[in-house]
TrEMBL record:
UniProt cross-references to SUPFAM superfamilies, sorted A to Z: Sigma2 domain of RNA polymerase sigma factors (SSF88946), Sigma3 and sigma4 domains of RNA polymerase sigma factors (SSF88659)
Family: Belongs to the sigma-70 factor family. ECF subfamily.
Keyword Transcription annotated: yes
Keyword line: Sigma factor, Transcription, Transcription regulation
Transmembrane recorded as keyword: no
Official protein name in the record: RNA polymerase sigma factor
Alphabetical list of Pfam families matching this protein: Sigma70_r4_2
GO BP of this protein: DNA-templated transcription initiation
GO molecular function per UniProt: DNA binding; sigma factor activity
Segments forming domain RNA polymerase sigma factor 70 region 4 type: 126-174
Amino acid sequence: MRIKEERLDSTEILNRFLAGIERRAFRMARLATSDDDEALDLVQDVMLSFVSRYAGKPEGEWAPLFYRTLQNRIVDWHRRTGVRNRFRAWFGGGGEGEEESDPLENLADNSSPDPLVSLQRSDLGEAIESAVRRLPLRQRQAFLLRAWEGLDTAQTAFVMGCSEGSVKTHYSRAIHTLRDFLKEYAP
């Protein structure tokens, strides 16, 4: 009976961890893939893999392990996509078609009393997302893990599979590049 209660508690803790990390992981995957469906598939795949492999690990190790798994899947996705695109080009498969717009994105946001403030926030958000997308993959990984997820240098190095010095270099370059991309939004 006691074992069942402990297992329920650990399952509940794992579910809370995954629920808390889900949105941020989706955002990271969407920045990497530029496709909501692909990003959702990646995150779901990572969550299933994470649970099957690391559920028994101590809770303090979950975040770095999860992000390492996510980053590995993102790199794999980029490789597969590159190979698919080469085959499509060789065999005459055209480019991607017109993207369908989401009708909900065209609705007015009534939560802000000042439309100008909403427009400025929206423009800044889109500019930041675009700037982060334009970063090279390793710089994007270092920036997202350090700035958005709050991992320290050692945890980020573990997730990225590189040295702490390499993380510092990638992160610094990402910050400088983002400042250049976003200088028109600086106060």
